[in-house]
Amino acid sequence: TFSQKILGSTTVFSIDNNQNPVDWTVADVASYFTAAGFPEQALAFRTQEIDGKSLLLMQRNDVLTGLSIRLGPALKIYERHVKVLQQTHFQDDEAFC
Amino acid sequence: TFSQKILGSTTVFSIDNNQNPVDWTVADVASYFTAAGFPEQALAFRTQEIDGKSLLLMQRNDVLTGLSIRLGPALKIYERHVKVLQQTHFQDDEAFC
Amino acid sequence: TFSQKILGSTTVFSIDNNQNPVDWTVADVASYFTAAGFPEQALAFRTQEIDGKSLLLMQRNDVLTGLSIRLGPALKIYERHVKVLQQTHFQDDEAFC
Amino acid sequence: TFSQKILGSTTVFSIDNNQNPVDWTVADVASYFTAAGFPEQALAFRTQEIDGKSLLLMQRNDVLTGLSIRLGPALKIYERHVKVLQQTHFQDDEAFC
Amino acid sequence: TFSQKILGSTTVFSIDNNQNPVDWTVADVASYFTAAGFPEQALAFRTQEIDGKSLLLMQRNDVLTGLSIRLGPALKIYERHVKVLQQTHFQDDEAFC
User: Fold this and answer.
1) CATH assignment of D2-95?
2) Size of interface B-C (CB pairs under 8 A)
3) Which residue in D54, D59, D60, D67 has the most chain A C-beta atoms within 10 A of its own C-beta, making it the best mutation to test that interface?
4) What is the DSSP letter of D66?
5) Residue C17 to chain E, least CA–CA distance (Å)
6) What gap in Å lies between CA B17 and CA A23, rounded to an integer?
7) What are the angstrom distances between the C-alpha of E78 and each of A54, C1, E64, E67, E71?
8) How far is C69 from chain E, CA to nearest CA, in Å?
9) Interface confidence: ipTM more than 0.90
10) What is the mean pLDDT of residues A70-94?
11) Residue B53 CB burial class (10 angstroms; 0-12, 13-18, ≥19)
12) Residues linked to residue C6 through DSSP beta bridges, in sequence order
């Protein structure tokens, strides 16, 4: 249920039937990070009850210290996924203006 | 005892007889967050003794790390409620000038 | 041994015989916060060995996270007391220039 | 397997066959810090699963508080190694433009 | 082995035979803070393995939260000693340019 989209050197996975992260449930967010290669960290997103709306509000420090996950994966999750999903989302928003 | 007011895409609840958050007691703050769909987090506001005056002084990081609540709900509580209540409050203040 | 001075909407207490907070001992600081209505938090100032000189060096985050006190009172202690005492103190300093 | 390069007053070690830190594995990062004189702290980088890509994303505060290592060595690891590796890496990148 | 130098209202102690803090060992740093009236906190500097080079890299927040010392003394240690030693050190550096 995930397709890949290449953005520069970063691969962002998206849920086929529900592309816009703003509509993702907590389970969708966890599935996303499992598919992206972070099954262990996906659990932490679930524990902290992070759905798509919350994901789009996360800042670097929230990912690094608010999830109680190891620093190495946290740095990649923020830079390659959270940040990129937010940039894509807010670009799409602007495209409607 | 709560009415809803639509502000853009955000619903802010207000206590009918006591609209101005600056006058809310600790119990009013807890009632507000229970009505807003965060009964568990409402308890944390009560534990930290946050009345309306303190609520209007809270910054993003205070909500995210000072209440010991889960990150997902914390992000929404700040963005959709604390921040919006503060903006509304300080706009109202300016309207009197 | 405390008198009150009204500053805008904020009441700042001052120790009669020793008005300048820079000269307050750890016990004076604790007495100040007890008189201001924060007897429990006054204890935390004492535990952290905060005298007048240290009090004048405290920033928002130091009050909120460095004293292990509840967030609601901490927000008011900073905004209504620590910040105001510092502004008054540094204004007085400028008056001498 | 390490050679030394002098950069101002700072010595940066590099892995001979794999000079670009972006390609370092978690084991390479640990070897680097062991060779640089921080064998104990190398273990913390390994525990936090920090490979070369994550290393290049680390900020001062991540090194000081995210690795649970002592403050003295942490300050030197950031200033003399992490920061310098990042500067060298991003300079090399620019050289290709 | 310490002499005193008056800088404005601040007294900075310096180790006679080894004035430049950049050359201080962990033991020298501890001796400095013991002589400056902070014997208990000197122990924390030693525990965190802070030598002169690390001392010159410390920021306000590192002193306040990274040493696990009480807030009152920490505020004074930073303002009257760490900050002043750094200013003196970097002024001396500039004098050579």
Assistant:
1) 1.10.150.50
2) 31
3) D54
4) S
5) 23
6) 35
7) 38, 32, 8, 12, 11
8) 13
9) no
10) 93
11) middle
12) C11
The region of weakest confidence among A79-88, B81-90, C9-18 is: C9-18
Position E33, amino acid: F
Tokens representing residue A47 in the block: 């524990």
Place of tokens 């300079």: D91
- The model carries a pTM of 0.85
DSSP string, chain B: -EEEEEETTEEEEEETT---GGG--HHHHHHHHHHTT-HHHHHHHHHTT--HHHHTT--HHHHHHSS---HHHHHHIIIIIIHHHHHHHHHHHHHT-
D75·E54 Cβ contact <8 A: yes
How far is the alpha carbon of C96 from chain B, nearest alpha carbon, in Å? 33
Q: Helices (H), strands (E): how many in chain D?
A: 6, 2
Chains touching A (at least 3 CB pairs under 8 A) are: B, D
Crossing angle of the two packed helices A39-47 and A26-35, in degrees rounded to 10: 160
In chain D, what are the domain boundaries? 2-95
pLDDT given for residue C97 in this prediction: 46
D71 contacts E50 by C-beta, under 8 angstroms: yes
Q: What is the Cα–Cα distance from E2 to D37, expressed in whole angstroms?
A: 31
Enter the DSSP assignment of E37: T
3-class DSSP assignment, residue D2: strand
Q: Per residue in B45-73, pLDDT tens?
A: 999 999 999 999 999 999 999 999 999 99
Which residue of E61, E75, E77 is the best one to mutate when testing the C interface, meaning the one whose CB has the most C CBs within 10 A?
A: E75
Query: Do E71 and C48 lie within an 8 Å CB cutoff?
Result: yes
Interchain contact D66–A (C-beta under 8 A) = yes
